[in-house]
């Protein structure tokens, strides 16, 4: 949710700022902008509405004359104020302070009213501009830029990741974070800041991950960090294992396509060192995992978006296989109600980014409600807010996911949750050695099974054409396949803008069946499980109402193909754990190909952002 990049070097910084913004565009792309201190310490700024490409064109039109050794840049996902040039970052106060911001200043109206009385004028409708004015005002009574920022920040409530420069202090960037991610890149010819390491991989692999409340003074050859209370602190430098090429498109047309096809490898990576030939290693969840799991009596899963759908699948597994009660809830609801959290609860947060604001806040809320709970976060991001707040950490090892619509994160989350289910089942002694071996065998087969499912792409591509003129679609499934249907509907909505709903097939007759006609395609998932016969009856009910149906089935399900009904075999004889993971694949491919036909921006769908670090 908004991306920040900046740096102070002995070379021109503009190219790196643009390159960094391109890597951060997944965080928002309503508008973008950059500012440098040019010769004589004058601010030189460019801003454009829309994608970073527009900013690049804007700079070209100015003969790429914006140059300087110190600068900051931003790609925006609008919260306060529409995506206009005036609302685009960086913002400037009195030609003295300029900054980029990720987060929300909740008391900005109050601050703005006060600043108006002090003579400040406002060029934007954002909550961010008050930060610039507050720092400028603090500079009147402070002797350094960092002390001005420390003073100003005391008046803000809300969240921020900030990159700040000043024409009066041309040798430094101030970085500050609270509730929004920010890393410092430690380079040879300079030092940098960014919302995400990916933006800086071309200049460094060495990173300092700022902690909540940290404020840093970054000069070309020196980094000084203070904590929230103003104490000088030493944060470790960590070497990133990300490779620059990992974030390139390679031979693919879109990141989403690349990430769909990367799933076999991503799952291999998730499983590596977490299983042996025939068993799951409980220690993969951390040294304290065995002790914690032997104590727990129930599980609460919290997540948003696609991660929430993964949690819904896990509820079936945890109750059915590990025999432990499990609740799943979206973070934005959980954090604001007054839930009952029993002792001996394992509180699990699921999040690709580890930074989703609602999920982070839900975890904090849970800890306040009952400090005796144990917490586990399953995430793709080792250095994130969630990992810092959790007792146990499990990394999905999916590799960087750039496409806004999540694909390999979802399937690797499912694999992680399957490992957890098996671990809990083992510790609680409700699964035996044979069952454990079957689960491990199934997980090991997944990469091959996914490759087989991907072979149906040509057929799915043909089906996608049917959606060209459709406005709505219905996804049906039962059991874990209801959660997979939800994920299929979410994918279609996100990238093709077709309204899509998912229903448990048995619930259809209680309302949604009224919607069915020839213009409403129905997509059903038919694994060969104990609910198959029930599902087949539901499909008949739909069919007799004139719907155009697509059924993704297990070869042995033998759904009878009728008129205006396409049955596509995806796999055969899968178990409770492998089936939902494999049936995800055709739904990802379907939404991807529908989006291509609708000519939407697959990797950067309108109004969305990959990492939602504001409420
Ligand atoms: C955003 C993204 C979704 C993602 C959700 C949760 O809405 O567009 O793709 O599923 O956030 O993100 P998380 O990083 O917490 O999994």
CATH 2nd-level architecture of the largest domain: 4-Layer Sandwich
Binned strand content: 15-25%
- Strand line-up in the sheet with most strands: 3-2-4-1-10-9-11-15
Report low-confidence residues grouped into runs of 5 or more. none
The CATH topology annotation of the largest domain reads as Glutamine Phosphoribosylpyrophosphate, subunit 1, domain 1
The residue fraction in helices comes out at: 25-40%
Report the bound ligands by name, code or SMILES. Answer: 6-O-phosphono-alpha-D-glucopyranose
User: Which superfamily, in CATH terms, is the homologous superfamily of the largest domain?
Assistant: Aminohydrolase, N-terminal nucleophile (Ntn) domain
Q: Given the C-alpha coordinates, what overall shape results?
A: globular
What is the number of E strands? 25
Indicate the radius of gyration in whole angstroms.
25 Å
Instruction: Report the span from N to C terminus.
Output: 10 Å
How much is the average pLDDT?
93
| Total domain count | 3
Classification by helices and strands? alpha/beta
């Amino acid at each position: 949710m908004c991306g920040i990049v900046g740096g102070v070097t002995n070379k021109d910084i503009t190219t790196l700022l643009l390159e960094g913004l391109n890597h951060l565009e997944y965080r928002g792309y309503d508008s973008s902008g950059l500012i440098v201190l040019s010769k004589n310490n004058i601010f030189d700024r460019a801003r454009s509405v829309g994608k970073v490409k527009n900013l690049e064109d804007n700079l070209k039109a100015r003969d790429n004359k914006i140059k300087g050794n110190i600068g900051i840049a931003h790609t925006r996902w609008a919260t306060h104020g529409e995506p206009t040039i005036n609302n685009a970052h960086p913002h400037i106060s009195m030609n003295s302070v300029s900054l980029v911001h990720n987060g929300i200043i909740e008391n900005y109206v109050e601050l703005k009213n006060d600043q108006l009385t002090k003579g400040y004028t406002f060029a934007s409708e954002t909550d961010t501009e008050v930060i610039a004015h507050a720092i400028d005002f603090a500079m009147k009574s402070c002797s350094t830029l960092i002390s001005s920022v420390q003073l100003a920040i005391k008046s803000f409530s809300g969240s921020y990741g900030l990159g700040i420069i000043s024409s009066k202090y041309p040798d430094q960037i101030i970085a500050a974070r609270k509730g929004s991610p920010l890393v410092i890149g430690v380079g040879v010819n300079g030092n940098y800041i960014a919302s995400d390491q990916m933006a800086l991989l071309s200049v460094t692999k060495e990173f300092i991950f700022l902690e909540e409340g940290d404020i840093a003074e970054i000069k070309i050859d020196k980094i000084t960090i203070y904590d929230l209370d103003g104490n000088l602190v030493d944060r470790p430098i960590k070497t990133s294992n990300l490779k620059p090429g990992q974030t390139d498109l390679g031979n693919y047309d879109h990141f989403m396509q690349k990430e769909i096809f990367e799933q076999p490898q991503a799952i291999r990576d998730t499983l590596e060192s977490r299983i042996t030939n025939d068993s799951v290693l409980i220690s993969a969840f951390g040294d304290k995992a065995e002790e914690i799991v032997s104590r727990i009596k129930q599980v609460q899963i919290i997540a948003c978006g696609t991660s929430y759908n993964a949690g819904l699948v896990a509820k079936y597994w945890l109750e059915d296989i590990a025999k432990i009660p499990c609740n799943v809830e979206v973070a934005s609801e959980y954090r604001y109600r007054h839930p009952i959290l029993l002792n001996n609860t394992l509180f699990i947060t699921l999040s690709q980014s580890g930074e989703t604001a609602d999920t982070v806040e839900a975890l904090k809320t849970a800890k306040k409600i009952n400090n005796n709970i144990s917490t586990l976060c399953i995430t793709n991001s080792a250095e994130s807010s969630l990992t810092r707040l959790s007792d146990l950490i499990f990394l999905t090892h999916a590799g960087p996911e750039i496409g806004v619509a999540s694909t390999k994160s979802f399937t690797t989350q499912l694999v992680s949750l399957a490992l957890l289910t098996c671990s809990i089942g083992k510790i609680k002694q409700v699964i035996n050695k044979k069952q454990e071996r079957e689960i491990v065998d199934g997980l090991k087969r997944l990469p091959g099974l996914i490759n087989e499912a991907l072979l149906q792409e040509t057929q799915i591509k043909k089906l996608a054409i049917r959606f060209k003129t459709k406005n709505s679609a219905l996804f049906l499934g039962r059991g874990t396949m209801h959660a997979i249907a939800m994920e299929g509907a979410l994918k279609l909505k996100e990238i093709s803008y077709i309204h899509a709903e998912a229903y448990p097939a048995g619930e259809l007759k209680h309302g949604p069946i009224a919607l069915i006609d020839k213009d409403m395609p129905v997509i059903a998932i038919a694994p060969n499980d104990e609910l198959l016969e029930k599902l087949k009856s539901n499909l008949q009910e739909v069919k007799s109402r004139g719907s155009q149906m697509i059924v993704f089935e297990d070869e042995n399900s033998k759904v009878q193909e009728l008129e205006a009904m396409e049955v596509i075999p995806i796999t055969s004889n899968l178990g409770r754990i492998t089936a939902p993971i494999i049936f995800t694949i055709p739904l990802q491919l379907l939404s991807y190909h529908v989006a291509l036909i609708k000519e939407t921006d697959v990797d950067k769908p309108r109004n969305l952002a990959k990492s939602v670090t504001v409420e």
